[in-house]
Each structure stands twice: as structure tokens, then as C-alpha cells.
User: What shape does this take?
Amino acid sequence: MMHTEITPTKSKVLPPEQKQTIFGWTKKNLFNSWFNIILTFVSLFIIFIVLKGTLTWVVTNADWEVIRANYRLFMVGQFSEEEIWRVWSALLYLTLLFGLSAGIWKGTIRQLSFLLTAIYVIHLALPFLSGHTKIWLLSNIVTLFASYVIGLKLPKGKMIGIGGWLFSIIVILFFLQGFGILPSVQTSMWNGLLLTVILSAVAIVGSFPIGILLALGRTSKLPIIKYFCIAYIEFIRGIPLITVFFSMQILIPLFLPEGFTVANIIRVMIGATLFTAAYMAENVRGGLQSIPKGQFEAAKTIGLSSIQSTFLIILPQALRAVIPAIVGQSISMFKDTSLVAIVGLVDLLGIAQTVKSNPAFLGHHMEVYLFVALVYWVIAYAMSYSSRRLEETLGVGKR
Amino acid sequence: MKNRKRYLQFVFAGMLVFLLTLTGCSSTDTSTDGDETTDEATDSTNDASSGKTTLAEVKERGYIVVGGNNQLPGFGYVNSDGDYEGFDVDFAKVLGAAIFDDPEAIEIRPLSAQERFTALQTGEVDVLIRNTTWTVERDVELGTNFAPTTFYDGQGIMVRKDTGITSLEELAGARIGVETGTTTEANLADQFRKLGIEYEQVLFDDSDSLVEAYESGSIDAWTTDKSGLVSRQSTLSEPDAHVILEQTLSKEPLGPTVRHGDDQWFDIVKWATYATMEAEELGINSTNVDEFIDSSDPVIRRFMGNEGELGEMLGLENDFAVQIIKHVGNYEEIYNRNLGPDTVFKLERGLNSLYTDGGILYSPPFR
Assistant: This one.
């Protein structure tokens, strides 16, 4: 907090560096006046009461059996036991990608891989997971390290890495859905964290290209495209997400011809993607507007066509400028997927609601909701942390 | 400036048209839905070449899609192994057993209270078994048919024992908690207006916060369906310190629901449900069903499909009742498994007893 910017006054005498002890710091910041002394004690008292109440409840009153017994439900929902290897394989593929990318790009992705390893290790230490699960966890950890080492030395690593990520959605959907090659698992069995992650991944990844196109369309000079994009963006931004979900669930089936049904999970995915795209478009437009006119002119001067200048000069700079906004949008989308619990899909929150309705665990909703909140927090925090790291690496706001 | 204004007008006009189309479609849908579905469905039943009966569709698919609830203790929830369980779920299994001889030939599709009727009307689910109260409006306006009631519920009120309150009249001036947007809210207002008693209504978004408020003493009483009160009582810190008033505020007959227009499917759901009650009346259950196969009693022989062709008339196997009892059990077994004395609910049979035991469950004869 004391790191003030050094003003360019060329002063040669810098202020002496103060060596502060903890005692000195508290004296200076917490006990420097009568008012602050009282404030400190009142705050400490409040913190003590809250912490004591929470910790007493967490340690003594709460019965965490409900989490232990339903752990699998929370994670993958009703995905059948025999087919669970498919979820693991999909995860293994992701782990492999993380490891490779950590080796190739280092930086942020390496931090995320550390986090992933930490999560695996924590799960490995959980006493109630079956041996089967632990073998999968171990193989994930081994894969992560092996692929990291490979990634460090891989020639043309970046191409392979980018290719891997591009294919990841298809590979994961192949494992989960089967595409007719593997026995199909009904989408109504895709529950819990699995559904939350798939739903938000599809919405975030899918909305990105649509959002960019909408943003470019909105700044276009062709009136039809321009006003279509404006109408779309403003219409979507004017209605709440839950309305979109409700119309996807209730209105769409009424319009479809008889006997023709689209799985409700697909309908929700489409709704979430279209919704996020409108917000993504506005974020990207913000970035486009931050690019000085000189860049356009410079691109024109060296003979680039308008398409070339857009995709080679303008967009890369514009997107870099709005990384925080885009990640913020992604985090909020990730959390907003919990709204699907209201329209009958069983995501992480939905599974929490059905678990607390199990007569064996009646009255343990506090534990259930606390656990769900923790899972949401870990993932949302990882996203926001990696965004901050990414900004630092790219030097947003510094150059 | 002028140009811009015109463009804005254009945009708004466009949006308005879009909105009008949306609302226009949805309003016609709700008002004429019953008729439409009836016509279409009747057509499809009559004209085998263009459409299929629900039964044919279900048989081709290999399983029944059942609209259910996954958040109601005792009636529908997912157990720790990831399987659906509960009273309503068992009646879905009854249908699976009757049609496919396999209680697991069902897919439960969890539905919210708002979307359940749309899902039924549009054919997304074949049957709705989701604690749905039978009312005139739903039966007629929404174009649905109600199979026999499987559970007679009614709204009740819970108070602390030490208050000594035993009737609604004594609740004058009390703070009563209720969930918003439910029929219970309206029922509560109706009852107290009838009695001319003043009370303070406290609204809650979900039952968890309602129960929490009741336990902490910020409200004097709370109300919901009696089955819900009983199931929650067992989770209070001192279950014995609370009492549910004798009086019932409303009638809540809950049962399976199908859409208008396919009478064969309606009959199947109806008679599969009745079969569980008839079995209890005849004393047949899942453990002793085999002993009855050679029975000489003509009533039992007809019920088991050894005589007559009751099953074939419905489009099922003649021994469909046997399959139901073998796989799922009779009504008593279903009740006891989910709500009875061995569960946390310990719910009295009450109205849900056979007519021979003082209840109102009464299956028409199987002949």
C-alpha cells in the first residue's frame, strides 16, 4: 500500500528505507489514535465472534458425511459407474494438454498446472475415495509431469499445443457422448460439476467468435449488418439470462414440429452461448474503440487490405486490451450457469438441491451449500488469478 | 441527428415486432393448447400411418420418459449411488414394469413446477409424476388427464408444543411462515379469511430458510403440505417439541398426469396405478406373488392375467399386474418403503389407507 509512484523529479536523496517490525506496523496503522484503537478493538471483537461461530459450526456441529457419501454425485452426477472411465479419459486428455502447454509456454499455464496438481494431490489424500479413483488420480498426476517434460523439449510444440486445445472440445464430447461409437450416455445423466464445466466451457468458447463477429459487425459501415448487430446486442442485453433459459426450455419446444425434440441440455447451451455473445461483443467493441486511429492508417499505408488490417493489426491489440473484461465475463458466465438449476437441469447447484432432499441427509443443507460455494470459489478464483497473470505477461497497461 | 433518430425508430420497431411475435405465439399457445393437442393427438391415434400412439412411441424408444421431481424428500430425489428414489419414482417404475417388464426402463426428467405442463403438452415427457395436485383448471384448461390419485395430501400447520395451541382459531395474531408463489400461500389466506382471524404472514423463498426461521423462533408457526411438515419435523433439533395441528387447510390429491387425446395411454397409466391398490386389497405383495399364480379365486385369476384378456385390451401383456407387483410391489410396499414407519418420515397412512381400513383408496374391479 505504501508503494507510491516515484515522481520524475530526479531527486538523488531517496527517503531512508524504514525497517518495520510487526509491532511497529500495528502501532503505526492500528493504534495511532484513540479513535483507531477503539475501532481496532471493535473490529477484532466482531471478527472473533464471526470466526468463533463459523469454526465451531464447521468443526463440531456440521456433519460432513453428506459430502463424503455424495462426493461422486457432486462431481459427475448420475454418469453411470461403468461408463465413468470416459469422464476420466476426458479429464486425462485435459491434463495432458495442461502439462504440454505448461512445458511449451510456461508462465500462467504452468501456475494453473500447479493448481491442478494440488487439486489432484488433495483428492488423493481424501480417505473416502475408492482405490479405482485413486489410480485414475495418480495416472493424471503422472501424465501431467510426463507431458510437462515432453512439452519442454517438443519441437513445433506451439502448433501441437494449439491444435490440441482446438480439438479438445470435440475429444471431450466424443468421450462423454460417444457419437455412436461408444455406447451413448443420456444427457440427462450429465450432472453435477461435470455439467457446470461443460456448459460454461461451451458458452465461453462458443460466444467468443460470435462476439467478435458481432463487435466487428457493429462497427461496420454496411447499415444492414450494423443495425442487425445493434438490434441483437441491445435486445439480448435488455433481457435477463433466466428469461433466456425459460424461453429456451418452454417456448422452443412449442415451436418445434411434433416429434422433433432437442435435448434440453443443448437448448440451454445455445441460450447461454447466444446470451454471452452479446456481452462479449460489447467487451470486444470497447477494445476496438481503444485502438488509436493511427493504427488503421498505418496498416493502410503498408498496403494491407481491410480484412488483413482487422485481423493482423487491430484485433490482436483490441483483444489484449480487454482481457480483464473478457475474463470477468467468463467468470460471471461460469457462475450464471447455476441458473439452469431453476429450469430443471441438474448442474452443481441442482445436484446440491437433490442431495439435500435425500431423506438420509435431511437438514444438512448448510454443509451442502457451503461445499458447493467452495467449489465455485476455487474455480472462479483460479480463473481470475490466471487472468491477472496473463495481463502481467502481456504487459497490459504498461506498453 | 435526424438520421440517427430514424434509425433508432427502425431498430425499436424491429424489436417490437419480434417481441409481439413471441408474445403472440405464446399467448395463443396457452389459450388454445388443450384443443390443439387434443386434435393433433386424436388424429394421430386414428391415423396410424402419419402418427403413432404414445404406447407405440414408447415401445419403439425402449423406455418411458417420466417428468419428475428431484427435490422432494420421500417423493423424488437422487440417492448417493446416483439412482432416483422415492414414492413418485416408484410409480414411474410401476409403468416401466407394466410395459417393459423392467422397472428401470424409465428416464426421469427433472422438471421445475413452471415447465412441467409445457413438457407434458409438447411430448417431451410421456407422463408427469411430480406431486401434481388435481384441479379443474389443470384437468380442463391445460389439457391433461389425471390418473388415480396416489397420495392424498393436505396443507397443515406446525407450532411449538409448549404454546399449547391446538386449533387454527388460537393462532390469532401469530406470525406464520409460508413459501412464496405456492398454493399454500393462497390457501392460508383463504382459511384465515373464512375464520375471520387476523394473522401476520411471513414470506420465504424456499423451505430451508423457512424452517431455519421457525427453529430460531422468529415465526410462531409455519405451513406447507402435511407430508412436508412431517418430513421436516424429523430434522428439527428437538422433533418432539413441535406438533402438527389436526386441522387440514386444503385438499391436495397428487397423482400421475398424461396429456389429452391418447385414451389408450391414459388407460394404461390409470390401470397400472390401480393394480398396486388392488394388489394390496387382495393381499398380494412382491414376496408372495408366486403363491397366487395357481390361485383358483376367479378375481385373483383375472387380476393376474390367468383368465380373461385384461392386459391385451390395454395393449400390454396379460400378466402386467404380476410384473408390477414382482418388480415394484403393491401400494403398501411402495408407501412403506418411502414414507412408512421404517423411514425418517413415519407418515401415518390416514386417508391413504384402503377403503377397507378407513381410507379412501378404492380400485375399481379388474374384470
